């Protein structure tokens, strides 16, 4: 599969499709298919694909969308007419996740497109490939073939919610303004209802009552109606009661006096003693007491748990403190040891430095010093050979002299006596030997014969 991806050219545009199955990232081959990519990007910028469905799904083959009608019969390009196919030799239907244009024949491209759900070599040189799905969003695209599908049409189709152009290779694209037609709602004229009294069992009586009520309504059109107008009751009179037209002079009330009276009333109400309840408090119910005991027990348990946690934290703190102290002690000891080693190294370095400084410079003195050292070394070797130890040697010289000079021992080494059994003696026992067989009481077969 790696060879397939290497053959495809690099992309130069990117669009994000927000669908009901999740986001789908689409990268476009704008250099290889400029007309198709320009058409697709401009339609995305105009929101042409918003709320359109994937109206055709063939499992393992394609998932088709981009039709505003939702049935595969609609859709138009930005050019106002179908545009030509654009084929490229490095773009082939060899895998899933490719984006191509749907058409009804040669050079019949509009707005509809489809995603491949597998390798579709039979579509080669028939449909224009102009993009591919990238990243993990290909798994969202594969969800388009899930669900109930009947005659290549999903029963519950997924749709494109929104499109976003993330990388536009065509800087000169200007989205067209879409004209939205506002349809005026016509008000329905209400027709007066016609009453059909023939449908009722008492239709004749109801019809007479209706006629009488219409006559009365016509009589009192524009006038207020009362019960004596509608009913023929002798007790009800249509005459109105005479009202005395004498207008009593209403006494004008001073607002300040009114405020003062309100204040006095409030003071009186404030001074009234609050009636104390003579009834004694009712005893606490047993159920309430039981609930109170449960609450106390819960609080007690919570308090004990908190105490335990505090003790555990204290123990952990002390343990960590002791551990830290031990680590500090080990670190100090290690540091002391390192300091001691460094000091020994420094002392040794200073000693040999002083010795080096004590050496005479080049000349006659240096030659004599070397001859004296050589003579001293000869004497030391002779004394070691004779078995005598030179006590005059300095302790400093003995310190670096770790190995003694040993010579080869020329004394003859005697061979071991085979008749003497030492600690390293071992006996060879062969069971096939005739002597060993006689010792075990076995007889030789030839004697038996």
TrEMBL record:
<feature type="compositionally biased region" description="Acidic residues">
    <location>
        <begin position="242"/>
        <end position="259"/>
    </location>
</feature>
<comment type="similarity">
    <text>Belongs to the cyclophilin-type PPIase family.</text>
</comment>
<feature type="region of interest" description="Disordered">
    <location>
        <begin position="204"/>
        <end position="286"/>
    </location>
</feature>
<dbReference type="InterPro" id="IPR029000">
    <property type="entry name" value="Cyclophilin-like_dom_sf"/>
</dbReference>
<feature type="compositionally biased region" description="Basic and acidic residues">
    <location>
        <begin position="213"/>
        <end position="241"/>
    </location>
</feature>
<dbReference type="Pfam" id="PF00160">
    <property type="entry name" value="Pro_isomerase"/>
</dbReference>
<keyword id="KW-0175">Coiled coil</keyword>
<dbReference type="GO" id="GO:0071013">
    <property type="term" value="C:catalytic step 2 spliceosome"/>
</dbReference>
<dbReference type="GO" id="GO:0003755">
    <property type="term" value="F:peptidyl-prolyl cis-trans isomerase activity"/>
</dbReference>
<comment type="subunit">
    <text>Part of the activated spliceosome B/catalytic step 1 spliceosome, one of the forms of the spliceosome which has a well-formed active site but still cannot catalyze the branching reaction and is composed at least of 52 proteins, the U2, U5 and U6 snRNAs and the pre-mRNA. Recruited during early steps of activated spliceosome B maturation, it is probably one of the first proteins released from this complex as he matures to the spliceosome C complex. Component of the minor spliceosome, which splices U12-type introns.</text>
</comment>
<feature type="domain" description="PPIase cyclophilin-type">
    <location>
        <begin position="19"/>
        <end position="165"/>
    </location>
</feature>
<feature type="coiled-coil region">
    <location>
        <begin position="296"/>
        <end position="398"/>
    </location>
</feature>
<feature type="compositionally biased region" description="Basic residues">
    <location>
        <begin position="264"/>
        <end position="273"/>
    </location>
</feature>
<keyword id="KW-0413">Isomerase</keyword>
<keyword id="KW-0539">Nucleus</keyword>
<protein>
    <recommendedName>
        <fullName>Spliceosome-associated protein CWC27 homolog</fullName>
    </recommendedName>
</protein>
<dbReference type="InterPro" id="IPR044666">
    <property type="entry name" value="Cyclophilin_A-like"/>
</dbReference>
<dbReference type="InterPro" id="IPR020892">
    <property type="entry name" value="Cyclophilin-type_PPIase_CS"/>
</dbReference>
<dbReference type="InterPro" id="IPR002130">
    <property type="entry name" value="Cyclophilin-type_PPIase_dom"/>
</dbReference>
<dbReference type="GO" id="GO:0006457">
    <property type="term" value="P:protein folding"/>
</dbReference>
